[in-house]
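Hi, here's the filled form for the chain we discussed.

Project: internal
Contact: R.S.
Residues: 257
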Amino acid sequence: MNPRQIQSEHYLKALIIVLSLYVGSFVYLELTTVKKEEMLSTEGLYEVQLEEITEDEKEQMRQELQLQQQQDLRSVARDANDSRPRSLDNWSTQSSASGQANPEQAARDFEAEVFAQTGGAAARARILENSNQRIAQIKQQGQPNNQNNQANTAQPNQYAGAVMVDFSVNKRCAFEGNTWYVRNPGYTCGFNASGLVYVQIEVNASGRVSAATYNAAKSKNASACMIEQALKYAKMSRFSPGDGNANGWISYQFEAQ
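And the returned structure, exactly as it came back:
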C-alpha cells in the first residue's frame, strides 16, 4: 500500500470520528431539550389541575381539616353540663365571670394545696414553676388565666374538639366557672402511658372532693400509675360550693409523651 492510500485512509477515519462526535452531541442536546419541555409541560398541567379544584372539593378539604382538629387531643378540661355551643375557634374554658375578690390570692392558695399534696421533687418543681408563671399572669391581667392561653373572661363557646379531661357534677360547675381548677394529670405517667381512667367523685358543700373512686368498667388501658394519678388529681380539683354533697365523675385521658 502506497503512502497516498494510507494518508487517505487516515483522513477518512478522522472524518468518520468527527462526524460521529457531531451526531452524538446533536442527539444528546435534542434529548435534553425534549426532557425539559416535558417537565415544563407537566408543571403547567399541575398548575391547571390546582386551578380547576371545584367548590365541592374545597368544601371537602375544609371538612377534613376540621375533622383533624377535632381529633387532636387538647390539654384542657370540659364540663359535660356546659350548655354553651361548641366551637374550634372562639372558645374559653371559663363559662362564667369570676366572683373571686382576690384572684391572685385564690391562685396562691390553690397552688399551695396542690404543691403540698403532690409527692416527688420533680413534680413539686414543675408545680412551683407553673404556679409562679400563673401568678405573674394574674398580676398582669387581674384574673386567673388558663393553661392554654385562651381568653380569661367567659366566651360564648366551649371547645368542640377532643380534650384530656371531661367531668360532670350534679348541680355544680368548676370553681369560679373555670375548668382550670379541675386538674389534668394526663402527662404525668411518662412514655407509653396512653389510656382512659374514669373516676367517680363526691363533692362536699364547700366544693372540695371528699371521695374519689376508680371505676374499672368505664376505664380503658389504665395502668397503676394512671389510676394513682387520676385519684390524686381528682381529690385536688375544686368545684363550686352548694347545699350538701353532690355526686359526679371525672374522666382522664392519659397521653404518651
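Let me know if anything looks off before we file it.
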